[in-house]
Automatic annotation (TrEMBL):
InterPro entries: AAA+_ATPase, Chromosome_initiator_DnaA, Chromosome_initiator_DnaA-like, Chromosome_initiator_DnaA_CS, DnaA_C, DnaA_dom, DnaA_N_dom, DnaA_N_sf
Protein name (Swiss-Prot/TrEMBL): Chromosomal replication initiator protein DnaA
Segments for region (Domain III, AAA+ region): 122-338
Family: Belongs to the DnaA family.
Domain AAA+ ATPase: 155-287
Function text: Plays an essential role in the initiation and regulation of chromosomal replication. ATP-DnaA binds to the origin of replication (oriC) to initiate formation of the DNA replication initiation complex once per cell cycle. Binds the DnaA box (a 9 base pair repeat at the origin) and separates the double-stranded (ds)DNA. Forms a right-handed helical filament on oriC DNA; dsDNA binds to the exterior of the filament while single-stranded (ss)DNA is stabiized in the filament's interior.
GO cellular component entries: cytoplasm; plasma membrane
Pfam families reported for this sequence: Bac_DnaA, Bac_DnaA_C, DnaA_N
Domain Chromosomal replication initiator DnaA C-terminal: 365-434
Length: 460
């Protein structure tokens, strides 16, 4: 029997009340505050959610709880589905007064004694797939990582994940190791950086222990090497690692690498080792887009049992654009300031607190973006605005439009106006072309990465 609209609203209010009692307040406010029931079809409830990240989080983390609570209120409900609705009505629980009695107690801080590093595998249990935020910027790497855990040595071997500093490569590598150890505690898994590998090799040479060094690394079912760009120009280490790689690969053992650049751009790397790196699956991680940055901040705050006003989340997401690590650093400054004052600071206070963290937005202007793109493609700034269909001009123009939209959150009509009064549909086409290209075209990915590096890491 279909549920009447008013009854649906009442059921969701009751459901939210029960859910709020079952999870922490920050998690509730982060993932449930902007939800509502859209409709009911044949005892399937459809929930409005504000964006893709909330949809995925509710589907993957809270679906069982939602089903359980709703069935307790309305036993005939068979399933729950989620749809994105930007106009989803804010819950009354999201109103400003919820911050009034805020304080940070000792119980709200992470209990470090409960974090046990796996010293054998060198894995940190905090890094899991469950708390890894997935977006278009990293979905290929995430999908490949999950595929590897289901079929070690067969799916994507080796797996090579690359991208700029602070984008979550180490988190993903460690999540793979933790998942394998969770499924099989006896699995021989080893995570280490290439620098640690090199240091161990030097120590083995000094102690005449090369045979035991080789045996140690050849017995693993999963070997994870982080930051392999460190092998650049270190040819003795490259030679030894090449033989270890071959020994593992021939036994169908899984090998995973990460680097801040693709194998073909690592300088002074032996071609035979470069060939091994490129012989499996290459997955690039880009800097997160605006919505992903918001989701990352919300997730990190919820993990810390911490309530951060939406305006502060949006301010950080708009202004810290280069990588996840800097997002976490900005959020940590908010945590520290709030703990000191025993209250949620205002946006004005946060702007003052973060003035050293927030550099990209202050220094990077639209004019500077256009100048950087033009210089990168070796054309003049005047040419990028010309009414021409020459490929060498059109493509840089599309890149500039994409970055204006993605990194500056600039409206399509405004971008069109800046580029000679172009119709906003032209701008949308340019933006979508680059978005689609980033999913499949390595050159576009690398161009965007390098341009962002020039924009946000160089002094203006």
């Amino acid at each position: 029997m279909p549920i009447e609209l008013t009854e649906k609203e009442q059921i969701w209010e009751k459901a939210l009340a029960e859910i709020e009692m079952s999870i922490s307040k920050p998690n509730f406010l982060t993932w449930f505050q902007n939800t509502s029931i859209a409709q009911e079809n044949n005892d399937v409830i459809v929930i409005n959610v504000p964006n893709t990240f909330v949809k995925e989080w509710l589907s993957n983390k809270y679906h069982k709880l939602i089903i359980q609570v709703l069935r307790g209120l309305y036993p005939s409900i068979r399933n729950v589905e989620y749809i994105i609705c930007a106009q989803s009505v804010n819950s009354q629980r999201a109103a400003a007064p919820r911050y009034k009695n805020f304080s940070i107690g000792a119980e709200e801080q992470p209990e470090l004694e409960n974090i046990h590093i796996d010293r054998v595998a060198n894995l940190n249990p905090r890094y899991t797939f469950d708390n890894f935020i997935v977006g278009s910027f990293n979905e290929l790497a995430h999908a490949a990582a999950q595929a590897v855990t289901k079929n070690l040595g067969s799916s994507y071997n080796p797996l090579f994940i690359y991208g700029g500093t602070g984008l979550g490569k180490t988190h993903l590598l460690q999540a793979i190791g933790n998942k394998i150890r969770q499924d099989n505690p006896n699995a021989k898994v080893q995570y280490l950086t290439s620098e640690k590998f090199a240091n161990e090799y030097v120590a083995a040479m000094q102690n005449n222990a090369i045979p035991s060094f080789k045996e140690k690394y050849r017995q693993h079912e999963l070997l994870i090497i982080d930051d392999v760009q460190f092998f650049s120009a270190k040819f003795k280490f490259q030679e030894e690692f090449f033989h270890i790689f071959n020994a593992l690969y021939e036994k169908n053992k899984q090998i995973i690498f990460s680097s801040d650049r693709s194998p073909k751009t690592i300088p002074e790397l032996e071609e035979r080792l470069r060939s091994r790196f490129e012989g499996g699956m290459l997955a690039n991680i880009q800097p997160p887009e605006y919505e992903a940055r918001k989701a990352i901040l919300q997730s990190k705050a919820a993990q810390r049992e911490f309530i951060v006003p939406e305006e502060i989340i949006e301010y950080i997401a708009h202004n810290v654009q280069s990588n996840v690590r800097e997002l976490e650093g900005a959020l940590q400054s908010v945590f520290a300031h709030s703990k000191l004052l025993k209250k949620i600071p205002s946006l004005l206070e946060i702007k003052d607190v973060l003035q050293e963290n927030i550099k990209s937005r202050k220094k990077t202007t639209i004019v500077h973006l256009i100048k950087t793109v033009a210089e990168f493609y070796n054309i003049s700034e005047k040419e990028i605005f010309e009414q021409t269909r020459k490929k060498q001009i059109v493509f840089p123009r599309q890149i500039a439009m994409y970055l204006l939209r993605e990194d500056f959150n600039t409206s399509y009509p405004y971008i069109g106006e800046k580029f000679g009064g172009k119709d906003h549909t032209t701008v949308i086409h340019a933006y979508e072309k680059i978005v689609n290209g980033l999913k499949t075209n390595e050159k576009i990915k690398e161009d965007v990465r390098q341009i962002r590096e020039l924009l946000y890491t160089k002094e203006v």
